[in-house]
User: What shape does this take?
Amino acid sequence: MDLKNFFEPKSIAVIGASRNPRKPGNIILKNLVEMQYSGNIFAVNKKAVEVLGKKSYLSIKDIQGQVDLAIIATPASTVYGLLEECAFRKINDILVISGGFSESGNEKEEERIRDLIKKKKLNVLGPNCLGVFDSYSNLDTIFNPREKMERPKKGGISMVCQSGAVGSVILDLMAKENYGLRRFISYGNASGLDESDFIDYLGKDEKTKVICLYLEGVQDGEKFLETCKKVSKKKPIIAIKSGVSTEGAKAVKHHTGAIAGKSEIYKGVFRQGGILQVNSIEELLDCARIFERSKPVKGNKILVITNGGGLGIIAADQIALHGLELADLSSATKEKLKGKLSPNANLRNPLDLIGDASDESYKAAIESGLEDSNVDMLLVILLPQTPTITINLLKILKNIYEKASKPICLVIPGGSFADTLKREAEDYIPSFSFSTNAVLSLKELVEYHKIIKGQE
Assistant: This one.
């Protein structure tokens, strides 16, 4: 299925392009104009001649040119008729922002829409969804104002979210924490296109390095399983499944109209489909960060390198907690390090370079770990507050990481100075504020390796 028009349409019609700055149609049109979207933008409003400097058309039928994507942001009662008009105009790709369907108890109207979609063979995203954002094409159909919700920079993470509210939080956090986004899709009630359609499409997208899901329910279990089996062989899929409790399942029904299903069933489907299941937005984003940039892993043995002994001990506890192992450094590696590190350095794992560790100490330790066949991945904890560490270490780490064949995770704990260093490092190496988050992400990296091996 070709879904290109949802991300790179040459022309867009915003139906319900209101002059009221608080209405979704106004905000969507404003976002498209301010982002200087390169395609043609048409405003449709029965009561206006012009909206935000754009000529307004009374109906989609009045637009003379081709429309690749129609966006409907009008009351639920008008949606069926507008879909008919789009079908008449041979506009097959349609995004329905409007709510007020099964999530509000209006199942009959949503069923009418489903029947029309099938009959006219339309590609409909929604209803009851937040919209779509593509950081590369600058397509922004999200109805949250940009001044209230930041958009992330370009990157390799794609998000497929059933909930617009969860999607809003994720996008805002991604922008705040310097994550790179490829594409974001909020699909709401999925009366037409569903999560599987977009997972399949993103699986073929070269710029998407990792796919993240927020699911309340799945439309077609067999389709979902087969799609994920195929896609997870090429790139990781990470998912949050909400509605796992009895009360949560009830809430799901009144949110997107989905049927939550039993937690155990979903866990089994996720395992079969090669999906990594996490329990929170924080875990989802942490794992997305490491999968976007990490090198492939071959085993579960970690070398911890630190200039703070206590931080190394905390990391070791986390490694054991998550079923990973501390690597045993080879005799050759220890001999090599003796001449390059302080005489007081601890040559066991965690490798404690002690408080006076220099940039060159870190360089020597990391390079030695990468060369040691006993080490599968490296967790580098950098306490930047010490006087012997300079900002030049980031350049050293970048050069090492670009050539490394093993995963490296960087942890930079602390306040504003540490955050500044971490933000700079994040552009090329997976970086975290706490080893807890880093180790959990490394565990998922190992789990994905097991999944891929099991599918071969």
Q: What stands out?
A: The longest helix spans residues 435-455. The longest strand covers residues 153-161. The mean pLDDT is 94.
